[in-house]
Design a protein that fits this description.
This protein has helices spanning 2-8, 11-23, 30-42, 46-58, 65-77, 81-93, 100-113, 116-128, 135-147, 151-163, 170-182, 186-198, 205-216. With 217 residues, it is mainly alpha-helical.
Length: 217
């Protein structure tokens, strides 16, 4: 039932059921807590997700990659970069495997904080540990560089995606075009804008706004 609440983002009901389990002396396990943490994450309540995650340790409930990912993702959505990084590092100490979802969540947290150098470091660490980067990971890193005003690095990462056969969607094209616009690189922005048609990638309001702004500069 808690898993059903998680899928619907019903975090208050998931918490109620978890407390009811405790009151009736039914032991919660990794699956139950993971679902509750994920429900809080989906419901945008990162503090409660973290509270449940810490409660698992107090109750000696095993914390695996899935529940760590849910907790890291909750911190990312809540803009809590330091907490996300703490959990990320703790996984190594606890011998918990970090996967693409883990790295994507932490890189996304860096993107929201404009920490582009850290985002790049994490992307390189992924390659060194043979964890595959995906569209979400690269999009976040490109956006972090764009927000940090490093348009050349944003473009480098964007091109690297093609070399690594990572799918490039509207979101990452927009981030790359916006980076070129902020860097005053009109020719590169126009090239990417035209390339979207050739690659059958949809252009939206954000795409056009970025290119028009580049022309204006």
């Amino acid at each position: 039932v808690v898993s059903a609440c998680e899928k619907d983002g019903e975090w208050t009901l998931a918490l109620h059921l978890l407390r009811e389990m405790a009151d009736t002396h039914v032991e919660g396990n990794t699956i139950t807590y993971s679902a509750a943490v994920s429900a809080c994450e989906k419901g945008g309540n990162w503090a409660q997700a973290l509270h449940l995650f810490l409660e698992m340790a107090d109750r000696h409930v095993d914390r695996n990659t899935i529940v760590y990912n849910a907790a890291v993702s909750a911190c990312e959505k809540g803009g809590a970069l330091e907490q996300a990084l703490h959990l990320f590092r703790e996984m190594v100490d606890c011998f918990v495997e970090r996967d693409t979802i883990t790295y994507s969540a932490v890189v996304s947290a860096c993107e929201k904080d404009g920490e582009w150098t850290l985002a790049l470091h994490l992307l390189r660490e992924m390659a060194d540990t043979h964890v595959e980067g995906n569209t979400i990971t690269y999009s976040a890193a490109v956006s972090a560089c764009e927000k940090g005003g490093n348009w050349a690095q944003a473009l480098h990462l964007f091109l690297e995606m093609a070399d690594r056969h990572v799918d490039r969607n509207t979101i990452v094209y927009n981030a790359a075009v916006s980076a070129c616009e902020k860097g005053g690189a009109l020719e590169q922005a126009l090239h990417l804008f035209r390339e979207m048609v050739d690659c059958f990638v949809e252009r939206d309001t954000i795409t056009y706004s970025a290119v028009v702004s580049a022309c204006e500069k």
